[in-house]
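Hey,
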Amino acid sequence: MNIGGGSAGRDNDTGRIEAFSDGVFAIAITLLIIEIGVPHIDQEPPGTTLPEALVGLWPSYLGYVISFLQIGVIWANHHNRFRFIERSDHGLLFLNILFLMCVAFIPFPTALLAEYLDGTAAERETAGVIYAGTLAVTAVFFTLLWLYTAANRRLVNRNLDPSLLRAMTRRYLLGTVAYLLVFLLAFVNVSASLALIVALALLFVLPEPGERVRKETPTHARGRR
């Protein structure tokens, strides 16, 4: 059953969805650098040197690196998923829009984290919780997107090995649970939460279960329905 009705679209519809998504990813990842402002010595405490002012921006550097890595990994996984998604419908469009809404929001909690990471304990916790919570919600919508397309092979390649589908589904379900745990950890220890966020990003950089299988699958197999 399709969310909101409507029949599955043609192959080029998924190409348009991915192209639009790539645009949102590109804008979101570019906005991250805006948070790192050029220091103005005349606005710093007397005696502050330029190197000292640059070092003082370390929360902005940290936020930039973590979020750039996160958005990059999310984009890579989104791109890989659409290599298996061969049809589209209204439900896919709707879920993808909700997912992209989360991605486009990431620069805000990144700026918030950079601003208050070296603040009071309460400020640091609030910023860390909002940041981790944003990533957790993003992971939830990404997983929902995959579950919708993969359930009963609704929109994915019908020739995919069932065990491969299960492996990919398990990967994202476990990832979502991990991000939710990271969100809860932020209430206790922001530093540990950020460290696990980086670890999860590096983990999802690893090749996906279907990567090797896809390379070994003949090109013409993807054309069959």
